[in-house]
Design a protein that fits this description.
49% of the residues are buried. Helix 3 runs parallel beside helix 5, helix 8 runs parallel beside helix 9 and helix 10 packs across helix 11. Helix 3 links the parallel strand 2 and strand 3. This protein has a single domain, classed as Metal-dependent hydrolases (TIM Barrel, Alpha-Beta Barrel), CATH 3.20.20. The protein has an eight-stranded parallel β-sheet, sandwiched between helices. By secondary structure, it is α/β, with parallel strands linked by helices. The N and C termini lie far apart (46 Å). The protein contains twelve helices and eight strands. Helices cover 43% and strands 16% of the residues.
């Protein structure tokens, strides 16, 4: 199907997964303008119907972080992550608003439905050399916040592998550190795994020519694997080019199971167990919140 056709229709729902699973990273509050998308409640319901019954909803600025916390209190299948995306940092600093934004994220991080500090990290693709020192400083601030609150750190790393590891090594990575939308090769995967990190794989692992990413997944132990959509972006095959949503996660799960040489049900159970260990219980009654 041509990309233009994909962009102008909602993808069909895949077959349900045999075991419920977690979407490790999504942006349910972001609406793309280049294709149709489901309203929030419909998106959550569509995901649940195919076995994606829990979602880590990530806020990347103060407004979306507040929205994410609100979603996590409204919907029991959602827990929240809060942070300032690395590309936001230079813009906030230019407006003189960075200190205020830090204070807001710090306050939101105390909420019991917030289980993640992230996404934070480095992005050398959209921010040039002039903004890197600010990104480094912000990354260190988020690392300290994750360690102080005892919450999982989710890292955004785009074209910055060496510096991400250097800062984590220098600061001391939090006990629970996840490489969101892992984009490295086998060597980088092994470097992250040696440090005790978890690797979260998104739609690009299904792309035809992405052999290096599949090689990285292949060397990742089952109990270190997470699967995510990064919705509404990075839609997996066969719907690449369409607006992504959590209900499309089964495509990535099944592709990842094939790379790992395990049954789909085995991977689903492993991802679910790992997510519950990292983030704690989803359901408010179990979490006593």
């Amino acid at each position: 199907m041509p990309d233009d056709d994909r962009r102008h229709r909602l993808p069909e729902a895949p077959d349900p997964l045999p075991v419920p699973v977690v979407d490790n990273h999504a942006h349910l509050d972001i609406v793309r303008d280049d294709g149709p998308s489901l309203p929030l409640e419909e998106a959550i319901g569509a995901a649940a119907r195919v076995g994606v019954d829990r979602i880590v909803q990530i806020g990347c600025d103060v407004e979306s972080a507040r929205a994410s916390v609100g979603m996590a209190h409204r919907f029991p299948g959602i827990v929240a992550g809060v942070a300032l995306h690395p590309n936001e940092i230079p813009r906030l600093a230019a407006r003189g608003a960075l200190a205020e934004a830090y204070a807001a994220i710090d306050a939101l991080a105390a909420d019991p439905r917030v289980r993640v500090i992230g996404e934070t990290g480095l992005d050398y693709y959209r921010t040039g050399p002039e903004g890197r020192d600010l990104q480094h400083e912000a990354f260190r601030w988020h690392i300290a916040l994750a360690k102080r609150t005892g919450k999982v750190l989710q890292i955004h790393d785009r074209d910055a592998h060496a510096d991400v590891l250097a800062i984590l090594d220098g600061e001391g990575a939090p006990r629970h550190t996840v490489m969101h939308c892992f984009s490295g090769d086998m060597a980088f995967a092994r470097a992250c795994l040696e440090r005790g990190f978890w690797l979260s794989f998104a739609g690009p692992v299904t792309f035809k020519n992405n052999h290096a990413l599949r090689d990285a997944l292949a060397v990742t132990p089952l109990d270190r694997v997470l699967i995510e959509t990064d919705a509404p972006y990075l839609t997996p095959m066969p719907w690449r080019g369409a607006v992504n949503s959590s209900y499309l996660l089964p495509h990535t799960v099944r592709a990842a199971a094939g790379v790992l040489g395990v049954a789909t049900a085995t991977l689903c159970a492993a991802v679910s167990d790992t997510a519950e260990r990292l983030y704690g219980p989803w359901w408010p009654a179990a979490a006593n919140v």
